[in-house]
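Sequence in, structure out. Go.
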Amino acid sequence: MVSLIVGYLASSAMGFAAEKAADTAVGADAKSAASQRYRLVEGKGYTVCEAFLKNLNSLPMSEPPMVCEVRINHSKRGFLLPRWEPMDVERNLRLVHAAESQLIRFTRPGTKPPPYTQWLETFRQRVMAGELKPRLSRTVLAINERVSETFVRYEPYEGSCNLDTSRASNGALINYGPFVFLLRPSDALPLQQIESLTPDAAELFIYNGRPFFLYGISDFERIGNGLKPVWYIGVDHVRNAVEGAPGNPYIRGKRCAFKVDRESSVEAEYQHRQEFKKATASGRK
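Output:
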């Protein structure tokens, strides 16, 4: 206070200029702090993690947290979204059967998946009852300089991620959104899981020509004696397994983890869910 008074008495113009500059600096710092909505908790120093953090924090605060679909600020170089080609579900029911046979949401651990004809009857009943609104799509992406793979995305219910995340307020849940597999030229197993990535229900984005998986988990963060609800957002890349290893040729290569407060955009999430529920209700009529 004393320095401000002295400054004003010495030169009122200089005092007002200094005060305005200080207010501007404080405002900029507050704006900068508010814009750091997402925090990088794993993968500091990795180029893709730091770059994706900047992408996350450059998106509008009004948008729901990036749990369901990948959103890219196109001013951030290096990022692309894959071009998913829709697949006719009726013509690819064997793929749907293969997907559900490998997912614990449909096939409990320790149990055998039902044969195709039995599964098909149940599948049609679930569609008729409105329990399923399946979507299939595919895209071809380069794993490395020498190998490209066809990825198949299966979403049991169109927009299911938004519906699943609306249930996350009362506890920690996982498995939001679509499931991504590798397409294989085999009648016995036309879809193959990517080790520990497929069950997590993930979306894909491309950074510097390589595919990365994004998935969300609702979680809680301990603050003192209390718990704060947060979204844990993981980003993983696919890398080759040890040469000669049986099973899947690719394994999960852990890279990045981010956290964002769940209550930081409650209103945006609520509006997003309401719109989804209305769309879902109108679709079932």
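Check: Residues 1-34, 168-175, 264-270 have pLDDT under 50 and may be disordered. DSSP finds seven helices and eleven strands in the chain.
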